[in-house]
Amino acid sequence: MGAGEGASVEAGACRWAGSAASVALDLAAVMLAHLYAREVLARENAPEAQRRMVVRTAILLARPI
Question: Using one digit for the tens of pLDDT, what is the confidence trace for 40-50?
Answer without folding.
Answer: 999 999 999 99
